[in-house]
Write a structure and sequence with these properties.
4-stranded antiparallel beta sheet; alpha+beta; 290 residues; two-stranded parallel ribbon
Length: 290
C-alpha cells in the first residue's frame, strides 16, 4: 500500500460510522512497522483528540503485530539468542528502543573479556574472568526484592542503570557467556534462577570424558557452586530434590520467565495495557505450533 492510499484511509478515521472506522483500522493494521514513523508524523499534524486516539490504537496494533512476528521468528531460530529475545520483550512496551545501543553495550563487555579468556582452557577460569568484568569492573548489581520497579526486567534500562532483577541479570550473564562460546544455560528453581556451565571430566577408570556441571549464582556476583552445594541450596529452600533442578533449561524457558515476571510487575502497578501486550507474547511462546 502506497503512502497516498494510506493517507486517504487515515483521513476517514474520524468518520462517525463505527463500521467505517473498524474497516479502516483492520486495513491499516496490516501495514508493516516501517510505516510507524509516517503515521506518527500524521498524528502530530492533527489536533483532533478522537482522530489521534484512533490513529494511536492503529500504531499500537501495527507495532505489536510486528513484535509478534519477530518473536515467532526468534522462537523458531536455531540459536534463540538470549539478548535478542530480551530486546524483543523490551521493545514490546518501548516503541523507540534502540536495539543497536543495547547490543553495543553487550558487545563491548564481550570484546573486553575475549582477550582475557582466549588462552584459558578451563571453563571455570573463564567464568571467574567474566565475573570480574561484569561485577567488579562494570559494577552490575541485582535489585533487591523490596525494590519494586516496572523496569527491572527491561534490558535497555537495566544496562543503563547497571541494576536489574534476578531474571534479566541471569539472561544478560548467560547471553554474554554464550557470546564467549561458553556452555552456560539457566536452571529453573521455584522463584529463582541459577545458571549451569557444562564441563568435562576424565573418568580415571575408563579414560573417557564424562559430562559434568558446575553452577553459577548471578545474584551473588557469579559465585560458583558444585552439585553438592546446589543440593544444599535445594534443601535450604525446602524443595523436593528433583532431577530437573540440576539440568539446563533452554533460552526459550528464560525468556518465558522474563515475560511472566514483567506481567507480574506491570500488573502490580495496574498497568493493564502492558500486561495484555505481554500476555500475547507469552501465548506465542507457549504455543506448540505457529
Amino acid at each position: 500500500m502506497n503512502k497516498e492510499k494510506v493517507r486517504a484511509l487515515i483521513s476517514l478515521l474520524d468518520d462517525s460510522d463505527p463500521t467505517v472506522y473498524i474497516n479502516i483500522s483492520n486495513e491499516l493494521s496490516k501495514l508493516s512497522a516501517s510505516y510507524i514513523p509516517y503515521l506518527e508524523d500524521i498524528w502530530l499534524e492533527s489536533d483532533d483528540p478522537l482522530f489521534q486516539e484512533r490513529l494511536e490504537e492503529i500504531i499500537d496494533e501495527i507495532h505489536h503485530n510486528s513484535i509478534i512476528k519477530e518473536l515467532i521468528n526468534w522462537k523458531h531460530s536455531p540459536k534463540q539468542n538470549l539478548i535478542d529475545g530480551a530486546i524483543l520483550i523490551n521493545r514490546s512496551v518501548s516503541y523507540h528502543l534502540s536495539t543497536n545501543n543495547v547490543k553495543t553495550i553487550i558487545n563491548k563487555i564481550v570484546d573486553e573479556i575475549k582477550p582475557e579468556v582466549k588462552e584459558l582452557d578451563s571453563h571455570l577460569d573463564k567464568i571467574k574472568i567474566l565475573n570480574h568484568f561484569l561485577y567488579f569492573i562494570h559494577n552490575y548489581m541485582v535489585l533487591s526484592p523490596k525494590e519494586e520497579t516496572n523496569w527491572g526486567g527491561n534490558i535497555s534500562t537495566v544496562l543503563a542503570q547497571k541494576k536489574g532483577n534476578y531474571i534479566i541479570t541471569s539472561i544478560i550473564y548467560a547471553g554474554i557467556a554464550q557470546a564467549l562460546k561458553l556452555p552456560v544455560n539457566g536452571i529453573q528453581l521455584p522463584n529463582s534462577i541459577l545458571l549451569s556451565c557444562e564441563s568435562s571430566i576424565i573418568d580415571p577408570a575408563s579414560k573417557t570424558s564424562k559430562r559434568n556441571y558446575f553452577y553459577i549464582n548471578p545474584i551473588d556476583n557469579g559465585a560458583v557452586l558444585s552439585t553438592i552445594q546446589l543440593e544444599h541450596v535445594i534443601k535450604f529452600k525446602k524443595l523436593n530434590n528433583l532431577p530437573q533442578y540440576y539440568k539446563p533449561c533452554t533460552n526459550l524457558d528464560l525468556i518465558k520467565l522474563l515475560i511472566q515476571n514483567q506481567i507480574f510487575c506491570y500488573g502490580r502497578q495496574s498497568n493493564y495495557k502492558y500486561v495484555e501486550i505481554l500476555k500475547k507474547l507469552l501465548n506465542v511462546l507457549l504455543q506448540k505450533k505457529n
